Amino acid sequence: MNKPLKIFAMAVPTLAVLSACVPTPEELETTPVKVQTPKGVVTCQLYRHDRVSWDRAIDFPATKMSVPEADNYCKQEGLRRLKR
């Protein structure tokens, strides 16, 4: 077996094992929380307590705000909880 093929044959199983160790967002979900905003209640799915990059809105008053606006409220809530 030539050297590049040997390296590839070893790399694929190694990457597969390593990727199985990386948690998915679903594994890090917390119980959804409701956040009162000036435009209504936004239900947020928060994730890890030490980061907010995945925090997002799962329910919000769609006639009063956009998805990015609702997600921003959730990220703000995640940051607020992080500072506690």
What this model shows, in words?
43% of the residues lie in helices and 18% in strands. The protein has one domain (25-83). The model has no long low-confidence stretch (mean pLDDT 83). It has helices spanning 3-21, 67-83; strands spanning 33-37, 40-45, 56-59. It is an alpha+beta fold and 84 residues long. It is built from 2 helices and 3 strands, in the order αβββα. It has a 3-stranded antiparallel sheet with strand order 1-2-3. The longest helix is centred in the first third of the chain and has 19 residues, at 3-21. The protein is elongated, with a radius of gyration of 20 Å. Strand 1 and strand 2 form a beta hairpin. Residues 1-19 form the signal peptide. This is Lipoprotein.
Name the overall outline: elongated
Low confidence ranges: none
Number of strands: 3
**Going across the major beta sheet, what is the strand order?**
1-2-3
Approximately how much helix is present in the residues?
40-55%
- Rg computed from alpha carbons, rounded to a whole number of angstroms: 20 Å
The string of secondary-structure elements, in order, is HEEEH
Separation of termini? 57 Å
The whole-number mean of residue pLDDT values reads: 83
With helices defined by DSSP (H or I, 4 residues minimum), what is the helix count?
2
> How many domains is the backbone divided into?
1
**Strand residue percentage:** 15-25%
Biggest sheet character: 3 strands, antiparallel
Strand-pairing-aware structural class: alpha+beta
